Amino acid sequence: MRRGLVMRLVAPCFATLSLGLSALAGASTQVSGPVAHDNLAVYFVHGSAVEGAVPVTLEEALAKGRVKVSETGSVNELTVENVGDDEVFVQAGDIVKGGRQDRVLSVDLLLPPHSGRVLMPAFCVEPGRWSARGQEDPRQFSTSTAAMPSRQAKLAIQSYVAGASATLIMEEQHPADTAAAVRGRADAAARQAEIWAEVRETQQQLSRSVGTPVAATASPSSLQLSLENAKLREAQAAYFDALRSAEESADDIVGYVFAINGKITGGDVYASSALFRKMWRKLLIANITEAISEKNGTRASPPSLDDVQAFLTAVDSAPPSERALNSSVRLATGGGDHYLSTEIKRADGGWVHRNYLAR
């Protein structure tokens, strides 16, 4: 146990219940949990994984130099290029570090080997910079080790994606003077303002929770640099040590749902348990960070398994709206009074990832 950190596992039960997610193609699916620490509770989705090769994640590909994420001169548009021999999976909410300002990527994407440059909608998470930072290359992004730790920011991104704007940006040629382009720019600007506000709010809440400012001297407006703060890392460690081991206890986990302060916040489900495991550490740390920022000094019981089932069933039962993002992938979006959902599919119809967000 780390000095000064107290780990506490709350309600470590693993009862299961049947769940019929159409996203899992009729597979027998169960939910277990909760496993909880402090104000964060995690529920695991178990199911049969789809066979086949597992994509490389954006984090892995950037670390190995197999993908390039580049500036275009536009705040809300980047390019990504897979220069390697393996398919690369990009998940909405991935934060990329570097360039003229750090960004959060807006859509899920699958990049085939040697994909060529592909347009990618994005939002700024560092409003105080539009130039090189230190020795970083202002033309390129170097790493993607963090994911967006704010439900409200993710809701703003998903609301944007649910419209036609993201598809318009990803077209190779998108005339700047069309009515759709004008609406798309206005929508992006409105969502960008929401995300900047959420970045500031997240930084303030994290500073309050850890007892010290998390803004970095090198760039005070950078969410990414705030997420690298040493005091925040210490606070994350107690949650991480208590929660990560639960995922290692079963080899059929394909996703999770999490709750903060007794309320369901969202979750992710994957067609591949191997892809889930690749993404899990990044997602868990983002959820832990959000839980730290939302600490309010009260104790709330985690939602029941029935509550989690009802949430997933409600999201899954609504008819989605589906459209092509590009020639490789299709995006299905769903919405209701209490949730938003997105699902990424290959052009041949095979699904890869589904995200759930509570409103």
List the helices and strands and how they pair.
Blueprint: E1 16-19, E2 29-37, E3 40-46, E4 56-57, H1 58-63, E5 67-74, E6 77-82, E7 88-90, E8 94-98, E9 103-105, E10 109-111, E11 116-124, E12 141-147, H2 151-162, H3 165-170, H4 179-210, H5 223-227, H6 230-247, E13 253-260, E14 263-270, H7 273-293, H8 305-317, E15 321-324, E16 329-335, E17 339-346, E18 351-358
Parallel strand pairs: 4-7
Antiparallel strand pairs: 1-2, 2-3, 3-13, 5-6, 6-11, 7-10, 8-9, 8-12, 9-11, 13-14, 14-18, 15-16, 16-17, 17-18
Question: How would you characterize this protein structure?
Answer:
Strand 13 and strand 14 form a beta hairpin. The chain has a nine-stranded antiparallel β-sheet with strand order 1-2-3-13-14-18-17-16-15, sandwiched between helices. Strands 5-6-11-9-8-12 form a six-stranded antiparallel β-sheet. A three-stranded mixed β-sheet has the order 4-7-10. The chain has eight helices and 18 strands. The longest helix is centred in the middle third of the chain and has 32 residues, at 179-210. The model is unreliable at 1-27 (pLDDT under 50). It starts with 15 loop residues before the first strand and ends with a strand. The protein has a domain at 56-232. By secondary structure, it is of the alpha+beta class. It is 31% helix and 30% strand.
